[in-house]
Amino acid sequence: MVLDVVLALASALECLLEGVAFAHELGLPGAVGGLVGVPAGASLVLRRRWPVAVVLVSIAITPAEMGFLISVVGLYTLAASEVARRITVVLAAASFAGTVIVALARFHQDVATGAYHPGLWPAIAFAVVMALGVTAPPLLLGLYVGARRRLVESLRERADGLERELSLLAERAEERAEWARNEERTRIAREMHDVVAHRVSLMVVHSAALQAVALKDPEKASRNAALVGDMGRQALTELREMLGVLRTSSSEAAAPAPARAAAGPERLAAVAAVAAARVRGAAGEAAGDAADGGPSLEGLEHLVDQSREAGMVVELTVHGDQRSYAPHVEQTAYRVVQEALTNVHKHAPGAKAVVRLAHRGAEVALQVENGPSDGEQPGAGLPSGGNGLVGMRERVTALGGVFVSGPTDAGGFRVSAVIPDAA
């Protein structure tokens, strides 16, 4: 605004002086030229808001040989503004034509004398050169500045857009990381439940049997005590393996910390990579890596034998040709049978259980069914958190399988799962 006011004052002073001189040439009072020139020159203060009007005023006062500053600044502002190019070309042509006419008239008036009469073409060449000198530089400079300004604005808009996209990506990465952390906590809780609940449940069952037969059958009591010790050691071994996996996962998750200190896309890439890795792990793909050396279908017979040693009548039947599956598929199948047998120990002491395993072309099917409790064996008093069936369902559905559980018509309970082969 300060610049526009200074330019408007300078233009008004210029038009005042030129208007007074032009009025004297016409034989009019100088005040008339001043009254016309001052408002016309002062209109330059409106050049940013109405550049077309300012150029029209400069064209209108061109015949009076006024407004050199308003003409130059007005053309520059018009070319640099967002006015349509057609309007800019028309007004620039009108200003050029007006300047040519005025320069041609002034050339004949000042140069032509009684002894010297220049030709038409020299006069036209002089007028065209004068008009180009007045109109071309501000017009070209305005076009350049306008194009550069639009380019800078577009680059700024793109930068703002990229910043918003990066911010959105960071928010999504944080959301995915939070979701992955929740999934990881659920998976860890499920693993802890599977590892501890079954072993401890059998230990409690054997301890109850040990207490019952300690005085009557010392040999059987000794075997039960050995079984309790073996199961306790197995539980501790599995817990150590799980804690080792958790420590390894924690160290790997902390590895990209230097990358998080980087700015912009590198930091977002590091966050997204950690989130994606955790999402894949929660979905079950990383479960196979964590389960290397873990339980598999080959240990199913040993699992059933443990329940038999605890006094449960368990029947295991296998259908189809035995083959291997992906590690996380075999681990999930093993855990389903393990948790189902644990539930039988808890809720149906003395009931018979049937474990069925079927190897199919593209999937493995499991079913664990038990009859009603015979009522003769007292319950071991095992607590139940209600997470066993939930954990089994989560495991199976995470691999794209189907899980169904519910009571049978005979008063027992049935657990069924079909897990696709992900080999």
From TrEMBL:
Residues 152-183 form a coiled coil. It catalyses: ATP + protein L-histidine = ADP + protein N-phospho-L-histidine. Gene3D superfamilies: 1.20.5.1930, Histidine kinase-like ATPase, C-terminal domain. One of its GO terms (molecular function) is kinase activity. InterPro entries: HATPase_C_sf, Sensor_HK_TwoCompSys, Sig_transdc_His_kin_sub3_dim/P. The keyword Nucleotide-binding applies. Keywords: ATP-binding, Coiled coil, Kinase, Membrane, Nucleotide-binding, Phosphoprotein, Transferase, Transmembrane, Transmembrane helix, Two-component regulatory system. The keyword Phosphoprotein applies. Residues 184-249 form the Signal transduction histidine kinase subgroup 3 dimerisation and phosphoacceptor domain. Its EC number is 2.7.13.3. The chain crosses the membrane at residues 52-76, 88-108, 120-146. This is histidine kinase. The lineage of its organism: Bacteria, Bacillati, Actinomycetota, Actinomycetes, Kitasatosporales.
